[in-house]
């Protein structure tokens, strides 16, 4: 039997296409609203203990625990909070005003055992569309759900699970690595959403190569633990050399229904270019594109793309 790689983490990336059912105003940052709304729908549809998790006798069988909270049985020592690692939601559409019939897209990425609960997520997101997103309750329908490898899985009321094609992070890293190494130019990371990460016990106000690489490695390790594979963090001998960077602070406001309060999540956004890219770091930085890095990833933070570009081009 082939020995398992630390990147042998199953995943599926699902693109949701929606249609607004009436004119609506929506949040600029939709990821937190989608996550919070999905969680609320999961609780409404599945909770049998009046949301009193500490008193519930069905904890191990709880659908919400397996889908929304996706808790790990064992955790790396540095994971001290309740990290939801089984899924990510991505939405980079910042438009706020929509007319009836307009649509927006978002991506749901499922990892490990979360993959088998697709229809639970789908039901919750469908119900969220009927209930409405954000404080203005923007109602929408799900027109289509598709995956990159398998094509259209959901269209209208029809579901075709034969097109539910599952890959691994190793597959993703291999494809992206081959493409990137066939290109010329300097390596760079472009952050599409804020990065919230500590370096030497302080929240970063600029990018540090060591922090970025180790952040990606920690995220891979967390997912390994999530699928029951207790792996060690690699010891890197060198890191990419930063040539230049542009960075600015970025914040996102969200409402927590659990705590009944508004909160602000903060991070940095921008681009960092490198003079070098050590082979031992490359696989982890490629994986980080898919799995995000840093804190608050379940709210969409830490999404970036790794690029090759000629000197002086943006």
Ordered list of secondary-structure elements with their pairings:
Elements: E1 10-20, E2 24-25, H1 30-46, H2 63-69, E3 87-90, E4 97-98, E5 105-111, H3 118-131, E6 140-147, E7 151-155, E8 158-159, E9 167-168, H4 169-181, E10 186-191, E11 198-199, E12 202-203, H5 209-226, E13 242-256, E14 261-274, H6 279-291, E15 304-309
Helix pairs in contact: 1-2, 1-3, 4-6, 5-6
Pfam family, one: CRISPR_Cas6
InterPro entries: CRISPR-assoc_Cas6_C (IPR019267)
Protein name: CRISPR system precrRNA processing endoribonuclease RAMP protein Cas6
Give a written overview of the molecule.
- This protein has 314 residues and is of the alpha+beta class.
- It is built from six helices and 15 strands.
- The strands form four sheets. Strands 1, 3, 5, 6, 7, 8 and 9 form a seven-stranded antiparallel β-sheet that branches. Strands 13-14-10-15 form a four-stranded antiparallel β-sheet, with helices on both faces. A two-stranded antiparallel sheet has the order 2-4.
- A hairpin with a 2-residue loop joins strand 7 and strand 8 (158-159).
- Helix 1 runs antiparallel to helix 2 (63-69) and helix 5 (209-226) packs across helix 6.
- It is globular, with a radius of gyration of 20 Å.
- The model has no long low-confidence stretch (mean pLDDT 91).
- Residues 190-304 form the CRISPR-associated protein Cas6 C-terminal domain.
- This is CRISPR system precrRNA processing endoribonuclease RAMP protein Cas6.
- Pfam families: CRISPR_Cas6.
